[in-house]
Amino acid sequence: MSARDFIHNPKRGWIVPIGGAEEKYRDPQILRAFVDRCGGEKSTIAVIPTASRLEDTGPRYVELFEELGVSRAISLPFENRQDCTRKDWLQVLSEVDGVFMTGGNQLRLSTTLGGTPVARMLRDRNSEGLHVAGTSAGAAYISEHMIAFGDEGPTPHANMVQLAPGLGLTGTVLVDQHFRQRDRLGRLLTALSFNPFATGVGLDEDTAAFIAPDETIEVVGSGAITVVDPSELESSTMDSAKRSEPVSLIGIRLHILIEGGTYNTQTREARAARPTAAR
Amino acid sequence: MSARDFIHNPKRGWIVPIGGAEEKYRDPQILRAFVDRCGGEKSTIAVIPTASRLEDTGPRYVELFEELGVSRAISLPFENRQDCTRKDWLQVLSEVDGVFMTGGNQLRLSTTLGGTPVARMLRDRNSEGLHVAGTSAGAAYISEHMIAFGDEGPTPHANMVQLAPGLGLTGTVLVDQHFRQRDRLGRLLTALSFNPFATGVGLDEDTAAFIAPDETIEVVGSGAITVVDPSELESSTMDSAKRSEPVSLIGIRLHILIEGGTYNTQTREARAARPTAAR
Predict the structure, then answer these.
(1) What are the catalytic residues of A?
(2) Beta strands B131-135; B161-165: pairing state
(3) Less Cβ crowding at N or C end of chain A, within 10 Å?
(4) Looking at residue A208, which CATH number applies to its domain?
């Protein structure tokens, strides 16, 4: 349930936030699963490396997708807001099957793409079937409310996290990445406690949430996803705590899901992966 | 243009953020204009005093609305999240012509109402014609992205303002209140610069933005509205500045509008009030 209610749209493309540091060479299962969703060998994918300040980020992902056998991969390095009105690049965006946003700084994405034809096209086309993935900063940027930056640690306090408007492909989840690696439960809890309508999704590195059109999340990757569900929150001191004081939250539900596990943000139902017969 | 694009809905009710400290006795023109929109003598209005910790806030506004001649005014003092499932109060909300949210602390509103049937009903009914006003904290809470708290001063820097998810009646504006009185241009610029898709609306005290279903804003009250339009932003250092460093923004458009002035967030057109023949 979003700040505004999202209407179920079966035509929507997959939305795939990735926790950063996804395996790229040995067994790139997340990138491969994304390519599969986009149509495998027939698929065309645009890479948006805007979050990164490194010049080779775009070309590097283009190579990775080519190695995974896509029909075409192309980097669209939007550097500034003027770039976001380039007809030739918008033409590419209007035709591809998938878009992949790299890591870096999510504020580079929101300040560069926000309010431009690129952001608008990504939303419009995703609602009509374009698949959109993002890793690290690219993952943070995907949802309606984005964690721009924050502090480490497990205990929430009001000035621990900075929220900003994101791309807005979905409003049902609030994503955080490098989750276990950077001790981010506190800042995700803080972000959720401001307005407990969304579901928190903490993504470990090399772990992705494949969000289906029906809002079911499927876990792919070597780590875990921490689902934080505040829908049964009984009480919170967020509105009365001083900014650096710890905040009390009563009634949070938490699920740790690994590869194959699922969670539906509408029904709030979590399912573990089926145990395999032998490992 | 929102993080997600808002679709023009001619059935939507008026959305009326007020900058706080509106005149209540001598010549309560803002409250009277709101009552007029709700149907005047025939109108029924629910007051939501949740933002306030004072017990008489609700009854006081009920009295004010009764003095303005409404058919019925009633206070719904949602104190906690359990209250937000009360069938009798939801029944009232489902029937009134207008809702008025008082001042106080906007985090009390978002943490108490967020994700509950009350928030959902306010969105659903506003999209079908319910008029919703809010003053001070009640104004901040109205939009998709809400300023939760922040610092004074004219120059933006990254940790100057805390955003949080709001009620989400509209995503086209980002509201700040007590604007001139508390020197809040810096924090509004900061909030906008994170993702320059929305229009900033800085409301002076005793001044309201009457937002029509077609997204035209009309100014009512004794002060001014500062409209901050970042749609032609050429460059921003928000993504690279350290958190307490000043941020450079090139290409912001600013309008100061007074009583009778209008601004349309879709066409970006501002119009001054027509000069009157004699004053």
Answers:
(1) 136, 178, 205
(2) unpaired
(3) C
(4) 3.40.50.880
Q: A161, A151 in Cβ contact below 8 A?
A: yes
Task: Give per-residue pLDDT as tens, B80-114.
Answer: 999 999 999 999 999 999 999 999 999 999 999 99
- Count of the separate structural domains present in chain B: 1
Cβ pair B111:A158 closer than 8 A: no
For residue B237, give the chain A residue with the closest CA.
Answer: A111
Task: Classify B202 as helix, strand or coil.
Answer: strand
**pLDDT tens digit sequence for B67-78:** 999 999 999 999
A 10 A CB-CB count for A161 gives 25
Residue B35 has pLDDT above 70, yes or no: yes
In a domain, B8, yes or no: no
Mean pLDDT of A188-215: 95
Tell me if A164 and B195 make a contact (CB, 8 A cut-off). Answer: yes
**Structural domain containing residue B71:** 15-268
Is A156 within the bounds of a domain? Answer: yes
- B123 to chain A: which residues are within 8 Å by CB? 4-5
Q: How far is B108 from chain A (nearest CA, A)?
A: 5
Tokens for A189? 């809890």
Contacts with A112 from chain B: Cβ below 8 Å: 239
Q: Which residues of B touch A81 (CB under 8 A)?
A: 233-235
